[in-house]
Amino acid sequence: MLTRRTPISVAEAQARMQAVPLKTATEVVPIEEANHRILAADVKASYAYPHFRRAGMDGYAIRAADDHDFPKAFKVLGEIQAGATWEQPLASGEAVRIMTGAYVPDDAAKVIRIEKTRAVDGDPHRVKIITGESKTNITETGTDVKQGETILARNQEINPGGLAVLRAFGIKKVTVYQQPRIAIIATGTELLNSTDPIAPGKIYNSNGIMLKNLVEETGGVVDFTTQLPDDAATIERVLKQQMANHEIVITDGGVSVGDFDYIGDSARQADQLLFNKIKQRPGSVTTAFVQDNTLVMALSGNPGACFTGFYLYMEPLIRRYQHQKTRLQHVRAILAAPYNKTNGFDRYLRCRYEIKDGHYLVYPNGINRSGSLANLQTTTCLALIPHSTTPMQVGTETDAWLLPFK
Amino acid sequence: MLTRRTPISVAEAQARMQAVPLKTATEVVPIEEANHRILAADVKASYAYPHFRRAGMDGYAIRAADDHDFPKAFKVLGEIQAGATWEQPLASGEAVRIMTGAYVPDDAAKVIRIEKTRAVDGDPHRVKIITGESKTNITETGTDVKQGETILARNQEINPGGLAVLRAFGIKKVTVYQQPRIAIIATGTELLNSTDPIAPGKIYNSNGIMLKNLVEETGGVVDFTTQLPDDAATIERVLKQQMANHEIVITDGGVSVGDFDYIGDSARQADQLLFNKIKQRPGSVTTAFVQDNTLVMALSGNPGACFTGFYLYMEPLIRRYQHQKTRLQHVRAILAAPYNKTNGFDRYLRCRYEIKDGHYLVYPNGINRSGSLANLQTTTCLALIPHSTTPMQVGTETDAWLLPFK
């Protein structure tokens, strides 16, 4: 059956996606598993850092009152290795050998670097300090961080440097946003299993592995994938099952205007149809709807359209689920090689970019049909070819979006 | 014992690292595990893509000879769903209903979109084509890729788009470079275990978790980590064990000029001492040596110095192991906030950057002592403060390196 659809702009479609409420939740994870997770709460310092007065250099710790009139000899009371403490009082004329990072005696005001000292007659209990120095070579308690200060802030993506900070404060677990769990359903009787031999009329499910990995590197968790033949009852049953236990379901295929528009049928019957036609190429049939608080994103089965649709609509959603902005970087760019096709809808052209003299130059990347996929590996940005009846001239400035993790 | 060291420039230290031969090897992995691995061989198309003539639209397939003088009625022979094939000859005046993505009959030269057709008296075996159209709506065999063409090239990092390409060609496994297996050994009697309570003079091993995650997100595999007290025999034993079965070992701590320079001792006795003093802050004691074909990178135990040393020396090495260039992006940048400290060595200042009007502006990030770590999470670039006796003025242009995955 041929049903009419009302096309909306990409901006309007993105705004409708943005308006869908998401029930984000938090969870507690050990820091060993927290790299690149998003903090859901500020983390405060439970103690100052450093939490003891620390020697910045190898040398000899002395009192303030002795810090003048060098060279002179000192009695060496002992040695403080890193990791040790020292409780014995330090009198005038006395020094303690101290290692970098070690606990500085409370009485000491300065560490004279070992380079500024000499042994006295080979006596391990005596040292001569040759010259003084201006720096104390002591890192005072709390120099880096005061107790109670925020050490990592909410909504930051934890990175290896952040893990060092957490470990330094003895923090074992952090509260992070849950990652959205996403089901991916590919439809199409033409889809082979990956172990089947190639056959006429059939294709492999190339979108499935692409979407799974795109979701994962965007911060989502894919906990269900399947591929289904074009059978209305099967598609409806599996879609309902997955909607029942997912907040987000991605489908691909089954949204064309023909007889097998099964996902489109579900969309039209849904609580809220967000859109089922967008003024864009490729992927004008891209569809989204909400049913029982589950968002279903129905991407085109065409590889190029599926790829583009993911970046335009799903990437921002998965980021938002974890309180992040899209990582597609919007820039103004210059079309640097010819693209002659025109269209009544805006085209998101798969391109490569380079930066020259501070300008982003975009080059159409290989074949840009919606069904072509050879360029997906090497596409590093999407560039806008606005709808027009005349081709965009080389050298024209336009909008482009640099793709993350490419 | 106090031993003299000969300082070299950062560029010279990096050149010496670059000159170390690496025995890179390849391995075969299933494509399901290949995202972000580096291809070690070109991948060729074993068949053309598409591998059959494919309908680009839902509609009716007709012969070339019938493609004129519309409107006219056609006899409908049947329907070709996506995934099916069609062998029956197509005579003049005959059409076949066909779905997007389906196999086009060999006799057909065009697919007339369904929007251009009407039913005839409700008869499913007849259709009227109202108007013709210029496009064939058929994607010919090999339009996207010819058989034998390179579909992914050697030394590319596979991404989700690339996985789609591999799957489309039925490729189940790819040959990629082995990831370097790296052991990380932290030294220092001051190091607590992560489950110990904090104690005076002691610290947690913050470098350990940082280095492990930095190595992993750079493409290495960490298969051994430990932390050892400052005991010469223990350090020597564990270091030797790990050198015996690793091409790369990272240590941190134990390279200061003091009494506990155990790693430094191993360096001096090694087959090839690459360097043990670099004209840089922080981390001038950063040391590297090769022994029995194992490279040992001895980073400072100071968190800031350890962080900086990883990016300056280890990141390029791990990338090179997999035939990649460093992902630190070198830019010219402007110091946008005061930094008044001067030093006889070049300083790699931990900074944040922003791009304004096409310029990179760098801001010193918090406390830049070598022992400070509060800024490691939020540092997004390293900026060069060249050695000088006068502070670098705000507004001065300098070199900066944007950190990857930050």
Please tell me about this protein's structure:
The structure is a homodimer of 406-residue chains. Chain A folds into four domains: 10-25 and 178-321, MoaB/Mog-like domain (Molybdenum Cofactor Biosythetic Enzyme, Chain A), CATH 3.40.980; 29-44 and 152-177, no CATH class; 54-139, Molybdopterin biosynthesis moea protein, domain 3 (Molybdopterin biosynthesis moeA protein, domain 3), CATH 2.170.190; 329-402, MoeA, C-terminal, domain IV (Beta-clip, Beta Barrel), CATH 2.40.340.10. Chain A is 17% helix and 32% strand. Chain A contains six helices and 26 strands. The first copy, chain A, has a six-stranded mixed beta sheet, with no helix packed on it. A six-stranded mixed beta sheet of chain A has the order 16-13-17-21-20-18, sandwiched between helices. In chain A, helix 1 runs parallel beside helix 6 (303-321) and helix 3 (206-218) packs parallel to helix 6 (303-321). The longest helix of chain A is centred in the C-terminal third of the chain and has 19 residues, at 303-321. The radius of gyration of chain A is 32 Å and the shape is elongated. The relative contact order of chain A is 0.13. Chains A and B meet through helix 2, strand 15 and helix 3 of A and helix 2, strand 15 and helix 3 of B. Chains A, B: Keywords: Magnesium, Metal-binding, Molybdenum, Molybdenum cofactor biosynthesis, Transferase. Chains A, B: InterPro entries: MoaB/Mog_dom (IPR001453), MoeA-like (IPR038987), MoeA_C_domain_IV (IPR005111), MoeA_linker/N (IPR005110). Chains A, B: Residues 183-320 form the MoaB/Mog domain.
